[in-house]
Amino acid sequence: MGxxxxxxxxxxxxxVEDSFxxxxxxxxxxxxGKKKVLEVFIDNPQGVTVDDCEKVSRGxxxxxxxxxxxxxAFTLEVSSPGIERxxxxxxxxxxxxxKLVKWTLQSEGADGKVxxxxxxxxxxxxxxxxxxxQFDKELRELPLSSVKEAQAVFEFPKELSANxxxxx
Length: 168
Hints:
The structure is a single chain. By secondary structure, this protein is α+β, with helices and mostly antiparallel strands. The chain has 2 domains: 2-79, RimP-like superfamily, N-terminal (GMP Synthetase, Chain A, domain 3); 90-155, SH3 type barrels (Roll), CATH 2.30.30.100. The protein has 4 helices and 8 strands; from the N terminus they run αββαβαβββββα. The protein has helices spanning 2-19, 50-67, 90-95, 158-167, and strands at 23-32, 35-43, 74-79, 100-108, 114-127, 130-135, 138-143, 147-152. Strands 7-6-5-4-8 form a 5-stranded antiparallel beta sheet, with no helix packed on it. It has a 3-stranded mixed beta sheet with strand order 1-2-3. The longest helix is centred in the N-terminal third of the chain and has 18 residues, at 2-19. The N and C termini lie far apart (58 Å).
């Protein structure tokens, strides 16, 4: 089943990225009860709108009907990974430099026990093997291997926050 899913994901990725100005963030094919659901998450540095999702959904639906690579009936869902997305790809980390991120770190201590740390800090620098984050007044350098999960944190623009305070 793993090889079959890889072939489906690869086919979908190639079609979407060759046909539209979007990147594939993630593709999942899962069973919900007796139904199959194909979730396709698209991304773009300028953001993704509902119209973008509709356009990709129509085109991808027609294409999948034509190539018939998924046995059985399924429901297609196309969406954006959202503002508070999990950072999965290298490009996700690169695009979030300077932004606030919720970090979940996991490492093994000297005593052999697994330690977990969760905090919010601004991503200052990213390389494929390490990150630098601004945590309070401290700049921390961490191996990327210690990051169990990184999730973008939505911040209201400063202008909106200032306007809200003035109205009160």
